Amino acid sequence: MYNISEIARRLETTAHTLRYYEKEKLLSPNRNANGERVYSEGELKWLQFVMKLKQTQMPIAKIRKYAELLKEGEHTAAARLQLLNEHRESIKEQIENLLETEKLLNKKINAYKQMIRK
User: Fold this and answer.
1) Which of 6, 84, 109, 118 could disulfide-link 2, Cβ–Cβ 3.0 to 4.6 Å?
2) Alpha-carbon distance 50 to 66, whole Å?
3) 25: how many CB neighbours lie within 10 A of its CB?
């Protein structure tokens, strides 16, 4: 079990972000006798997944929808699969855009290198 500062440190985020995810109903950690949030290993893994989704530009609303479907049970597997497939397509588009941008940057960098050599 982890407290909020331990989880934040392990995830390289802030306690504020974790509280925000809780407010957005992405998780609901248990509380100890003092009322402090207590996170399980399963919640740590879930948060790692949530943060990867966030890093790849999945909107909080879609992550929330995924979390709601997950809580509903196995009968929502097809809907969860669709959400993840759609997000994978979005990631592929991001990768293509980044690769195109990298090509443009490489051209500019090479042009400046040649300019400097002269």
Assistant:
1) 6
2) 10
3) 13
Secondary structure (3-state) at 43:
helix
pLDDT by 10s per residue, the chain, length 118: 899 999 999 999 999 999 999 999 999 999 999 999 999 999 999 999 999 999 999 999 999 999 999 999 999 999 999 999 999 999 999 999 999 999 999 999 999 999 999 8
DSSP-assigned beta bridge partners for residue 38: 30
Kindly state the tokens that stand for 12: 């390289």
Kindly state the greatest CA–CA separation across the chain.
71
Radius of gyration of the chain (CA): 20
Would you identify the CATH topology of the domain 4-117? Answer: Multidrug-efflux Transporter Regulator; Chain: A; Domain 2 (1.10.1660)
Amino acid present at 32: N
Give the pTM: 0.83
Closest listed residue to residue 62, CA positions, set 78, 82, 44, 46: 82
Question: CA 50 to CA 29: how far, in whole Å?
Answer: 15
